[in-house]
């Protein structure tokens, strides 16, 4: 099975999650950071597509939205999985996830993941630092990345590979 992981990572948190997924997922995996990588791929070449991003100012990255819009109908024909890195928890995290991904994709996904997040103040620009300080009171790096949630996501995907 061939898996494509498309994601955006602003400060490296989503990239950490993608690395864990790539290292532990069975089969051939290609991961593409839509913000940085200039890799061309054909969706037809992949059995599974995993889409992941993070929340900034309440929204998922624009490149993820554009990818979903461009390939929406093709994605509905694939085995898909969706994940989100965010610092919010509970109902607010679920709300951000639901706002990030269209309902039709969420309903068709074989795995959904909320992976926690990080405030990497040391990697933020001046404006981002000011917003995070004002909204969340955070002035130093803080991690809430949920490795167990990432591993559960991987286990769910790997168990499907055995069944197929």
TrEMBL record:
Signal peptide: none annotated. InterPro entries: Flavodoxin_dom, Flavoprotein-like_sf, Protoporphyrinogen_IX_DH. SUPFAM superfamilies: Flavoproteins. It comes from the Bacteria. Gene3D superfamilies: 3.40.50.360. Residues 4-136 form the Flavodoxin domain. It holds the Pfam family Flavodoxin_5. This is Flavodoxin domain-containing protein. It comes from Neobacillus paridis.
């Amino acid at each position: 099975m061939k898996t494509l992981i498309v994601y955006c990572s602003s400060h490296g948190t989503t990239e950490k999650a993608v690395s864990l997924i790539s290292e532990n997922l069975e089969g051939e995996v290609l991961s593409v950071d839509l913000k940085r990588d200039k890799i061309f791929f054909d969706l037809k070449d992949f059995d599974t597509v995993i889409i992941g991003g993070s929340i900034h100012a309440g929204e998922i990255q624009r490149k993820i939205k554009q990818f979903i819009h461009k390939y929406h109908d093709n994605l509905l024909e694939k085995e898909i999985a969706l994940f989100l890195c965010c610092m919010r928890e509970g109902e607010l995290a679920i709300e951000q996830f639901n706002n990030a991904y269209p309902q039709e994709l969420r309903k068709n996904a074989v795995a959904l993941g909320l992976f926690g997040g990080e405030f990497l103040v040391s990697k933020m620009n001046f404006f981002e630092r000011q917003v995070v300080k004002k909204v969340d009171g955070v002035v130093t790096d803080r991690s809430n990345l949920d490795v167990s949630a990432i591993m559960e996501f991987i286990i769910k995907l790997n168990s499907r590979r055995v069944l197929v």
